[in-house]
Specification:
6-stranded antiparallel sheet, two-stranded parallel sheet, 8 strands, globular
Length: 192
């Protein structure tokens, strides 16, 4: 049986909206994303569609090299999945991506979160609610509370998630680029 890995990325971008959210949560990371590769090339979430406007949101494939994540602090966790679970999660995300114009950011759900009253809206998520729904769809986690009450820091409490990295996101992504360049150099040297 093939074992794959998924990755949970929690970030603090330092944006004005993040600072506002931190005042309420008192937690270091307030944005959650899910990825299916250690280099974070395919990262998905519900968030800003424009790096400079936090109020236009929805389903996004995030670019870790974008302005929004330029100075972000992060923590990355990995988790093991079977091939079937991996495919279930990817298919779920592909289905959302294919209909992304119909999906919205769940701003109303954030207010429900603050009031501890779950508000589930059709085709609307906020970041941690989306990540939790992907994990549920892949039969990775059976959450004890409604998905609309899952916060980014809840993922840090999951015992079978393994800490991969904590620090500046740029340091992590640049390390992967340097390792790739070193590998390509070694291939060229061997082939010369």
């Amino acid at each position: 049986m093939t074992v794959n890995k998924g990755y949970i990325l929690l970030t603090d971008t330092g944006s004005l909206l993040t600072k506002f959210i931190k005042l309420y949560t008192k937690k270091p990371y307030n944005h959650a994303s899910i990825a299916f590769d250690s280099k974070l090339l395919d990262v998905y979430s519900f968030g800003r569609k424009s790096a400079r406007n936090p109020f236009i949101g929805g389903f996004v494939k995030e670019d870790m090299k974008s302005y929004l994540f330029d100075k972000a602090n992060c923590v990355i966790y990995s988790f093991e999945v079977t091939e079937i679970q991996f495919e279930m999660m990817k298919r779920y995300i592909q289905d959302i991506d294919a209909q992304k114009q119909k999906y919205r950011y769940n701003f109303l759900g954030l207010f429900g979160f603050i009031l501890n009253k779950p508000i589930k809206r059709k085709k609307a998520f906020f970041c941690s609610q989306f990540v939790a729904s992907v994990l549920k769809e892949g039969n990775i986690i059976a959450f004890e509370k409604p998905l609309s009450l899952i916060a980014p820091n809840d993922f840090q409490q999951i015992s079978n998630f393994q800490l991969v990295y904590q620090g500046k996101l740029n340091d992590y992504t640049n390390k992967n680029v340097r390792e790739k360049d070193r590998f390509l150099y070694q291939l060229r040297t061997i082939g010369a």
